[in-house]
Amino acid sequence: MSVKDNAVNLDKLQVKPEDFQKVGADEKQSEVIQRESLSAWRDAWERLRKNKLAMTSLSVLVLIVLASIVGPMLSPYDDRTNDLLSTNLPPSAEHWFGTDDLGRDMFVRTWMGARISLIIGLAAAMIDLMIGVIYGGIMGYFGGRVDEIMNKFSEILYSIPYLLVTILLLVVLEPSITTIIIALCVTGWINMSWIVRGEMLQLKNREFVLASRSMGAGAGRLLFRHLLPNAVGPIIVTLTLTVPSAIFSEAFLSFLGLGVQAPQASLGSMIESALTGWMYYPWRMLFPAGLISLIMLAFNLFGDGLRDALDPKLKK
User: Where are the transmembrane segments (predicted)?
Assistant: First the structure.
């Protein structure tokens, strides 16, 4: 068919302007598929939620925390009553995790020990957070001579053997949960301060900081209103990795006999007491050792997932 024939056919159609309907801006936009605008935290949560390993680890941690609170209530036994007629019993319907060398119920003692270990780990991590953020923020923001002096002090403190400092504190002070937390915090805040210092050095010369400074913002306002909120991602990740480190340190001290004292028990002290007869009564070591391993693994996997979610360099 020729071009001339096409023109004739179009004329026969008798198309009129009123046969068409004008499309407004709303109708045009309705056909456009738009992506919801997400905030930085919402975007990080979406990325974290897609990480199945991290979410599984978070679920495990929540269950462990709940079990450490509710678990001892599910048993008619307590964690301190001795029963010399029921020593070293294997797991059964009456004693779900068996009993120890003094006849105490291992199920109750395991969850009570987990509670104490979690309290020590979380408390030490929060104190490390407060000291490290303030110290590192001051180092990084002021820089120069202030940064040099404060950084040298932290390096000297970090070079002192951790175990030596802990033993000295436990000798001077009466061994208790508070003493252990203090011992863990003597040098535990240094890593956090170095992380915060590095973030401050990167952020303090950004445009938004210079603009705030030109508008008369003081050092305190710049540090706590502008710089630290923009460094909260690495701070949270470091915090999640500090908790298992503190729990392991407490378990190590308790294993050496320098931690929680009887009749209280932590997971580390339970492992230490089970060491003598573990070949004959393996359940005494299996449950506390397995639980502390699970706690540390879950915290580390969740921390890795959180780091990946908060790292903008990983966005595609």
Answer: 53-74, 116-144, 156-173, 179-196, 231-260, 280-303
From 262, 269, 298, select the one nearest 285 (Cα to Cα): 269
Length of the chain: 316
Location of structure tokens 């089970």: 274
Lowest average pLDDT, out of 3-17, 77-91, 258-272, goes to 3-17
Q: Residue 84 and residue 104: Cα distance in Å, rounded?
A: 9
pTM (predicted TM-score): 0.79
Residue 298: band (very low, low, confident or very high) from pLDDT cuts 50, 70, 90: very high
Alpha helical stretches, state H, 160-206: 162-172, 177-188, 190-203
For residue 68, give the nearest of 23, 103, 116 by alpha carbon: 116
Beta-carbon contacts of residue 299 (< 8 Å; ≥ 6 apart): 57, 61, 240, 241, 243, 244, 247
Name residue, tokens 């159609």: 13
The tens digit of pLDDT for each residue in 111-170 reads 998 999 899 989 999 999 999 999 998 998 888 898 899 999 999 888 888 778 877 887
Cα angle, residue 45 at apex, residues 44 and 49 outer, rounded to 5°: 120
Biggest distance spanned by C-alpha atoms of the chain: 111
The β-bridge partners of 99 are 105
